[in-house]
Amino acid sequence: MAQNSKKMASTKQGEKPTAPGRTTMTSSAGVSMLWEAPHVLADRLDLDHNIAANVIELLDEGCTVPFIARYRKEKTGNMEAERLREVQSAYEELKGVQSKAGTVVKQVEKQGKMTDGLLAAIRRSITIEELDHLYAPYKVGSKATLAERARQLGLEPAAVGLLSQPHSYRPQQLVKPGEEGLQSPEEVDRGVQHIIADMVSKDKETMDTIRAMCKAGRVTLESTKSKSTAKKEKEEENTTHKFEQYYTFSCPLKFIKPHQVLAINRGESQKILSVKINIPDDVKTRFLTFCERRWVPQNAPPHAAGVIKKAVEDAYSRLIQPLMIRHYRADLTKTAEKQSAAVFSHNLQRLLLQPPVRGRVVLGVDPGYRHGCKLAVTSPTGQILHSDVVYLHDNRASREAGRIKRILEIHRCQTVAIGNGTACRETEAFFSQHIQQGTFRPLDVVYCIVNESGASIYSVSDEAKKEMPDLDPNLRSAVSIARRLQDPLVELVKIEPKNIGVGMYQHDISESMLKSALDGVVEECVSFVGVDINVCSETLLRRLAGLNAGKAKKLVEWRDANGSFINREQLRSVKGLGPKTFEQCAGFIRINPISINSSAKSTTEEEQSTNTAPGKKRKAAAEPKRKTKKAKTEANLTLNPLDMTCIHPESYSIALQFLNRVGGSLDELGQQNMRNKVQAALVKNNVERLAAELNCGTPTMQLIIDGLQQPLDYDIRAEFEKPLFKKGLVSMNDLKAGTTLTGRVTNLTDFGAFVDIGVGKDGLIHRSKIRPDRLKGKKSLGPGDKVEVKVLNVEPSRGRIGLELLTLIS
Where is the S1 motif domain positioned along the sequence (predicted)? Predict the structure, then answer.
């Protein structure tokens, strides 16, 4: 049996496996893996193999997720950006496995301890955890394993011989008096057992079997109150009570929720909880029975069979069971972290894509007690008109109401944005009271609560110092709050995504994983909304698909030196932007004629649009500079109306052919006349037939049709709910079970959705109270959604409000 096992694992380094249709993957260190990425991803993510292969090919070519999601639908089967990010993340993990496999092989070979079996096991590994298990005995400074010490005594031939020819096993012949480990037949047996146990724990079929048995069995995660918790409860009651539900907790692994895993992990790290994985005894019994059939040769002498059986039991208790427990804990944590990152990403996307509130002067308020409430008035384009500090929560409140009224009157401001941090509730009460009393008349003032997470961090950042050098950091946060209402995307891209508090246990997960996920979401949002290249800020450009800080800077420098971009084709003349960069970013860049040759004043007026950095002025020339190192031709100074659409330059020829078929012209883009002509053409030919006739994919044809019909000022954010403006508030003490209210979702977690119902404390709709039939076709709720809810219970002393979703308000 051992010979068969060894033969199965004896593939040499660099040798191609013989399975038909399979190719190997090679790590950076030259180790050929015994799997191919498309197969692994297709199996792991339930994808079609060809689609998985196509996505991998595109990623390897340097394509970004937004570009693939919009312009390569033919290759991905119309895969959405969220799903593409999932594939990208899984592929990055596999590349990490490949890279680490090369490092492991190199280190083990350097020690002269590589064997055919170990190499084959490394090449089969598809997770970092598997590689860590294989490499653990060979790490520099690691204590030699029992099997390694037995091999150093020369007992490996005896172990291999025992499995293949048990009748010839003679431990007494290997005894060497005076040499530790070989002083008696019993010591020889133990050494042989350790080697066989090591072989069992690294055998693919054996490990696949125990995994299958555990999967079929009722493996549970259990947590209990740790011995030190009693003392902690007296000292840190506010901390420990959060974990009470996990003091006697047991749940099968297949049913445990990600947020439960993260909560238990946190409780364990704080020494409040003791945690263990429980593998049922019947799994061990069935596994030992399987191993007896697999590893113990038929007709083996009793002594030889006994040594092998003890080796198998030792392998399970000392090596395999601990490995499985570590694997389960690591897998649970990884899955929970991914889900946490996914929840944060979903919430962040909804927050970034909240519709801008255009055309309003806004008073931003950063609430505070002792140091007062910071105020900032911003123009409709985000320019700072006034800043001040007022004290609303002491005996000066009445006098300060008059000051605020004068500020509002001077700037004709009727919209107030209040940050949701400390003193938000009291500040909201102040404005609500004076609105009801008519203090601000004749102005019809309304207010809105704005998520201020990250505003204080941004206010002391280099970006804020550069943008508002003469403003106190405390006042900068008020400016940020006002601008977040005017254009959430433009303002929030200035802040590290992890500092925007719309996640679940985000501080407990891998920072690199979270950053990667959130940066991808920001890039997607900025790209799909699009940027006006002639007025957008460098900060916004950095977040566009295909660009980075260096390339964004090059674009802005070119714009400052040469004047406005006239068309997308001019992007090719920017030094440092090669063909690949142009391909990735061009479709997301807009050339708006209004922005070309604009004066400094008109540039400022455009700054707070979708694509602008509020408050940042750019010196625009009245006429673009015509003298450049490379003479401009008439062609690259020609406006192309298609540059205002989502249609990629690579599809312009197809778009023009289609326009010719329908009798349309570029001057009619986005107009009703164009929509009529397109719809008339679609009555005669469906999209699939048009795509075939014009020699393009159906998704590309649909994108062209949409791009020609959409208004030139089309904004995908218009599909989302606008902010909720209020004039009054309700106290939490006024709430009663059965009351029906409307509110806005502020955060989504695995266990439910938090909703601002205007009482200063968010209520929770538990996941069990969110019926799919009340979501009006949507998969889930998200930040910004307007909902109608029913109050189920109110606990003022604990600040808890239980809600039930009645309907999603469209």
Answer: 738-806
pLDDT digits (tens, 9 = 90+) for 82-121: 999 999 999 999 999 999 999 999 999 988 888 888 899 8
Distance CA 326, CA 651 (A): 51
pLDDT digits (tens, 9 = 90+) for 478-488: 999 999 999 98
State both tokens at 467: 């943008």
Tokens of 794: 């109110």
45 domain-assigned: yes
Helix and strand element counts for the chain (H, E):
33, 17
98 shares its domain with 10: yes
Q: Measured at the alpha carbon of residue 765, what is the angle toward residues 759 and 767, in degrees to the nearest 5?
A: 165
687 and 652 fall within a common domain: yes
* Four-point Cα dihedral 635, 641, 642, 643, nearest 10: 70
The set of residues, in sequence order, having a beta carbon less than 8 Å from that of 216 and lying 6+ positions away, is none
CA distances from 633 to 308, 561, 595, 628 (A): 83, 18, 21, 11
H helices of 31-80, in order, are 37-45, 49-60, 65-71, 73-76
User: 797 versus 338: which is more confidently predicted?
Assistant: 338
Q: What CATH code is carried by the domain that includes residue 598?
A: 1.10.150.280
Whether residue 528 sits in one domain with residue 587: yes
> How many whole angstroms separate alpha carbon 596 and alpha carbon 143?
70
Q: Is 322 helix (H, G, I), strand (E, B) or coil?
A: helix
Shared-domain flag, residues 694 and 602: no
Q: Is 155 helix (H, G, I), strand (E, B) or coil?
A: coil
Asked if 663 and 610 sit in the same domain, the reply is no
Q: Provide the token pair at 38.
A: 């498309």
My answer on whether 243 and 293 are in the same domain is yes
Q: Which of 143, 163, 179 is the last residue of a domain?
A: 143
Please report how many Cα atoms fall inside a 13 Å half-sphere around the Cα of residue 581, on the Cβ side: 19
What integer pLDDT is reported at residue 185 of this predicted model? 93
Instruction: From 724, 746, 742, select the one nearest 791 (Cα to Cα).
Output: 742
**Structural domain for 315, as ranges:** 204-350
Query: In DSSP terms, which residues pair with 224 in a beta bridge?
Result: 248, 274
Same domain, 481 and 530: no
Per-residue model confidence as pLDDT tens digits over 413-447: 999 999 888 888 889 889 988 998 899 999 999 99
How many domains does the chain contain in total?
A: 6
Whether the predicted pLDDT of 459 surpasses 70 = yes
Strands 763-766 and 446-450: unpaired
**Do 328 and 245 share a structural domain?**
yes
CB-based contact 224:248 (threshold 8 Å): yes
As a whole number, mean pLDDT of residues 265-277 equals: 92
